[in-house]
Amino acid sequence: MKTHIIYLVSVLAILQGCTASLEVAPRGYLTSGTFYQNETDAKAALIGAYSILQEVYRNEHILTPNEICTDNAVPFLTGGPDRVAIWRYSHNTSNLYPGQIWSSAYEGIQYSNVLIDRLPGVSMNEQQKHVFTAEAKFLRALHYFNLVRFFGDVPLVKNETTNLDDVEIPRSPVADVYQFIEEDLLEAAAALPVNHADNDKGRATAAAATALLAKVYLTRAGNTPSSPYWAQAAAKAKEVIDLNRYDLWEDYADVFALANRGGKESIFEVQFITDIKGNGFTTGYAPRGAPIVPNNGYGIFRVTKSLFDSYAANDKRKAVTFLTSYVHPGTGQTVHLSVDDPDPTVAVSFWKLADPTVRVGLNGGTSWPYLRYAELLLIYAEALNEANNGPTTEAYQALNRVRKRAGLAELSGLDKEAFNAAIMLERRLELCFEGHRWFDLVRRDQLIEAVKAENSFDRNAPITEHHKRFPLPFREIEANKKLEQNAGY
């Protein structure tokens, strides 16, 4: 991906060309009529579609709701009111976060739809055309997967939007959205390559589409013991495992190392470039005002005591995941951080995605690990346990591989419920700060219980059943009269 950043300037005009009928193309601009001519154009547009993921995951769109709307994190309480509102479950239809999630997802869907609709007419190698189409379908499925999990029923836009008269579309049922996601991922898995050249690392592969489909099936199974999706999730996860292309790094810290971007544990990740096209994980989540990062720390949110204390003393992941102290560069004194002290300047911080080499503002280069092999093993273990009404030998092996790397003892002798509880805990500890917790709690019907149990800093959230979906943004309801708001908002 990083070798193609130069194309992004050209792609900025794509949506302008797709949403308006221009008779004359202004000099220096590309329109839908002048752009899609050859493989170079198509590849530039494809990289533009990937760039939407950089915007989604370099900012707070997915990460913040998935952490602070659960029992994992507490926002900076005198900071952004929208962030505090979703933490307290007092948010309304004008809250920033649902709006960001919605708009960025549909922007990404438009990019994919334009590619899928225009590629048949592009003069280029036919095999490469099929690959580009499959990548666009993978990206479209990813965006719809985020949308359906946050909002439930959503408008299902399957083709390029070329006219403002076409934007009023009603919501489609969840089942229809998932069917469309499944179709896209099956087609993508069949057409995508096993891997890409080194300078194209970060683009979707057949394994990425198959692994994402396993996660989709896991989500569709929900909390229903008899769901057929459990077996389907296990089967798709096993397809990827049996490829023998992926493995766990021996050291948990190596998962997030800059040198290991696109490495053996990464099934799909969103890549960044330090100090050039980066993310805000380093400065954004350092303790507020800490002079150890560019611009000092923002302290956007902090770690809950509940999460921090859930790690066993010998869990090797804890020291990698959190910043618990630092040496002040001015005084040379060690600053010890706390999960209890309300002062945000001494708050324990999420740290595993920090880039120690960053020098320019919010421009860290650590990849966003959208789907990695450790999660696939946990998906496989959870799905096998449910599909077989109890853990199998293979389920234990998958779970214990993740635990062994963390320095924890292997588990055995658990019944189905105890194994499920172990999986949920392992997902929380292994995957925290990677944008999974809210999705996990919702799909297993544990959100309300978890949020009510996390009352640090006087949270006392009045959470109810309707909070398992986010409200549709007010501006979208106003613009599209065919949309109906989620119940309770």
From TrEMBL:
Family matches, as Pfam families: SusD-like_3, SusD_RagB
GO cellular component, one term: cell outer membrane
First-listed, main subcellular location of the protein, grouped into a coarse class: membrane
CDD domains the record matches: SusD
Subcellular localization: Cell outer membrane
UniProt keyword list: Cell outer membrane, Membrane, Signal
Domain (RagB/SusD): residue spans on this chain: 356-489
Family: Belongs to the SusD family.
Name of protein: Starch-binding associating with outer membrane
Organism: Parapedobacter indicus
Highest classification ranks of the organism: Bacteria, Pseudomonadati, Bacteroidota, Sphingobacteriia, Sphingobacteriales
